[in-house]
Amino acid sequence: MLDVQAHLPVLIVTIPLICGVLTIATGNGWKPWAWATAVTGTVFWLTIQLMQQVLASPTGMVSYELGNWPRQWGIEYRVDALNAFILLIVAGVGFVTTIYAKKSVEKEIPADRHNFFYSVWVLALCGLLGITVTGDAFNVYVLLEISSLTVYALIAMGKDLNRGALTASLRYLILGSVGASFILLGIGYLMMITGTLNMQDMHERLMSVPGILQSRTVLVAFAFLLVGLSMKMALFPLHMWLPRAYTYAPSAVSALLSATATKVGVYMAFRFMFTIFGVGFSFIAMPTTLILAGCAATGILVTGVTAIRQTNLKRMLAYSSVGQLGYIVLGFSLANVNGVAGSVAHILNHALMKGGMFMAVGAIMYRLDKCDIRSVRGLGRKMPLTMAAFTIGGLGLIGFPLTAGFISKWYLVQGCLDRPHMWPLAGVVLLGSLLAVVYTWRVVEAAYFQEPDPGTPPVEEAPLLMLIPMWTLIGASIYFGINATFTGKISVTAAKALLGVGP
């Protein structure tokens, strides 16, 4: 009999991989959705079990060698506090969003494509989970391609008359392929100089051979990886694929991508910069802090102003996402405990807040077939639960006390103040929050303080199957804002492990 507990790392990847392909055979109607829900729910339960294993481990880490091959020759799945946390976020949001998808997909995707949609959906989650759990650099690239190809397909299924979804998917395909090529070349150069693809082995060999970090091969590998990862996590100004992708993708896909895809990109940056190259090289020997902090700070301000100018709610949230990713990158670029902890915490907080807000916009689309600011006039009285979820999510983006966003921004401000000469970045964090007040208030004002246009047809509240997942994420953001014990502990533990400081 299979010992599930002993094989948790590999089951988290193989179950959605196999079941994703089998989804095609479920036919149409409600069956592919029910199958996908069962698969994502199972994976979420397995990630909870894996998190418990990691927290209970004396080493704070769980290692799984596929086929019992030594890590030098085979593939090792290596799970610590950081990627166990990211796995929990991806699997949890994936499960909740799958439940939400039923009504949204019925409205936006032709019935004869539902089995294909959910098959690609589960495979996309498989790729994201695999990237997070693996300790092999080339395996990261393979799983990155699985997730990327499936996401391109999901975006292309968006419902619009002007083929905006197809062009958005094509743009993402081109830019994503360029980013993936940079990542592959960087991994290839690292393998050439270290002779291994295992991340831990790469780090040990880079640290043990005198002068190897100063070689041109390592410098080129670092530069290629920095560019490729910046494109994948949509760091300003390499973010141009994201606004159109989020705008034209099906509503459920926008919610999933905003909460998971770019967060996994950030996780890859953590692994390569901290685990492989090390803090000393990445942030002391190289001007990475200056580059990343500069791009992040500029992105927070520029995309905040751009979000204010938008009338389409999905596009507004898309630009907001780029700015919020700027907070995450700003945190880990500081390379101190508070900064990195704030970055890790904001991955969860932004996933909950933005995922819930995109669900709210999807509910508006479900009822109105549009989501511009003008269409939400007076909607606070007609769809009170939906607009309340959007408003609370907006408060989280602002960093309002008692929301999860406040906790992570508090860490980020402390990180800026702890780093010499970086205190002006604390002002950027605060100014970005003020910009979030403006673009959030535009929607709140229209929904609660303006009357709908004459002749507007009556609108009902969103279906319960959309409201429950929406409020699950928004409710979680409130809970973790009030009780931040778990997120704070995990974030600080992960930060100290990445920085190599004592417990």
Write a concise keyword list for the protein shown above.
mainly alpha, globular, two-stranded antiparallel ribbon, 21 helices, 75% helix, 503 residues
Describe this structure in words.
The chain is mainly α and 503 residues long. The protein has a domain at 314-503. The protein is 75% helix and 2% strand. The protein has 21 helices and two strands. The protein has helices spanning 8-22, 31-56, 81-108, 114-133, 137-156, 164-194, 199-208, 216-232, 241-248, 251-259, 261-276, 279-285, 288-309, 313-333, 337-368, 379-382, 384-398, 404-418, 424-449, 464-482, 485-499; strands spanning 61-65, 76-80. A two-stranded antiparallel ribbon has the order 1-2. Helix 1 runs antiparallel to helix 4 and helix 18 (404-418) packs antiparallel against helix 19.
Oligomer: single chain
Find the structural class using helix and strand composition: mainly alpha
Mean pLDDT across every amino acid position: 86
Rough outline: globular
H-E string: HHEEHHHHHHHHHHHHHHHHHHH
Amount of helix: over 70%
Largest sheet: 2 strands, antiparallel
Strand order of the largest sheet: 1-2
